[in-house]
Design goal:
This protein is about 25% helix and about 30% strand. The strands form two sheets. Strands 4-7-5-6 form a four-stranded mixed β-sheet. It has a three-stranded antiparallel β-sheet with strand order 2-1-3, with no helix packed on it. The protein is elongated, with a radius of gyration of 20 Å. The model is unreliable at about 120-125 (pLDDT under 50). With about 160 residues, the chain is an alpha+beta fold. It binds zinc ion.
Length: about 160
């Protein structure tokens, strides 16, 4: 699945009425202020994975401050089991409430929809091919089975 670039553009001209007010950007990585027509700064939404395999924690950094060039808010949702951590850095998300909803939504689907993850070659969901040799096919089935046990433990707290 193709994910278009999403982000926020900020005018950095001090005497402009649009100074540091964010403008939503979709599919572009340059921003010209519509008021003073100068090239502004763009902060694109980005994703990062730390660790390997099953993702058990999702972090959403939100409420970006263009003055200090840092995120002021953080929402964390965790399954309380060992695993990898997925972080979304989003200048679009402004509130704590919205960040928590997004973190919960990501955690509920990320291990089954690896299009959310940009890192090439990373996929928590193993691909099973019927064309593989029997031993490899059997190994893949066992991997899937193990992953489902981990998910069940997380859901039912066994
Ligand atoms: Zn401007």
């Amino acid at each position: 699945m193709f994910t278009p670039l999403k982000g926020v553009g900020y005018c950095l001209t001090l005497d402009c009425v649009n100074y540091c007010k964010g403008s939503f950007l979709l599919g572009v990585d340059k921003f010209f202020c519509p008021v003073c027509n100068t090239l502004g700064e763009v902060n694109l939404e980005r994703r990062e994975v730390q660790g390997e395999g099953f993702i058990s924690m999702v972090r959403v950094e939100f409420d970006y401050c263009p003055f200090r060039k840092e995120y002021r808010g953080l929402a964390v949702i965790s399954m309380n089991i060992p695993g990898a951590t997925f972080t979304l850095y989003s200048p679009i998300v402004k509130t704590d409430k919205r960040a928590k909803i997004i973190a919960e939504s990501i955690l509920s689907i990320i291990n089954y929809d690896n299009t959310l993850i940009d890192r090439t070659g990373f996929g928590a969901q193993p691909i099973i091919s019927f064309d593989e040799p029997r031993e490899m096919f059997q190994k893949r089935l066992e991997e899937v089975s193990e992953r489902w046990k981990t998910v069940e433990k997380a859901i039912y707290h066994e």
